[in-house]
Predict the 3D structure of the following.
Amino acid sequence: MARAAGKGLLYFPKDVNYYQDDRIVDLLDEYGPLGQTIYDVLLSMVYREGYCLEMEPDRLARQITHWIGREWVGSREKVLEVLDFLAGVGLIDEGLYRQGVVTSAAIQRRYDEVAARRKTDRSKYWLLEQKPEGRADGCGDPAAEMQQNVADGTQNAAIAQQNVADGTPNAAIVQQNVAEGTQKDAGTAQRKEKERKENKTKGNERKEDRKKETEKKKSQISEREREREKTGAACRPPVPHSPAKRYGYYHNVLLTDAGYESLRSEMGRSLPTYIDKLSNYMEARGVDYPNHEATIRKWYSDDRLAGKVPRPPHQPSFDLAAFDAGGFDLPDIGEG
């Protein structure tokens, strides 16, 4: 079942020479497949609305990031960087983009080709030459057009007869027109190349400014962290040095006497299990931790919050004196 026709398009054409456009080449050189994907998504968003999309750059970047996936985009700032580049090289109109509107003359030209017969208002943000009044859908009055064509044909015939009678050197005029057209095309190409280089330079400058701003923020964050570390180190009292002893199956867990007693008071009979767990993990992975006491305490705390503290191994005892003194932990048995 086809969708109802609206101001947006169900599809849009793509030129077979698309990847030979210098601006697309620059986009791929700068950002690779990610840049092309962002541009494709942007075009789909525009044509779904019509010939322009009214959306602020930040919101637009968030939506594109959501559609492509943060795993592939990396960050919203990367999308904003690509959008700035698209505006800089002229793939989207830079002036309107800064106002929160995404469109371009090329986008509107393709829209006009597909939706030529639609009676839609194209006065807002329209960059192309406006169509004559009464031809918003691309069609006019057939009778009026026929009369105009007849008049044009009569006038052309009269001009042709006059040219023959006067012996006008048509070949020379044609050659002159070709030469003038060639010069005009060369000038246009040079102007477009100059504009492309200027836009690319502007895009690179904006990219460099954004990069410097990001590095500045990272530097400020790192500076604040160093200040906190210095402040915290100055406030902490010096810890007296105590020789560490080796524990665990592989004798690679280092704990001071004070650290061992502190862990035992918290973990009870579960402590040997966690010591062996850390010992086996470091030996198997070939890694080490700067503070074994803190690592064991963190593992135990995480397991306790998750309700996964392992039950310590049962150690039977037949010491009746200890039993009489209440040295065993016995489960409560309710009356029943």
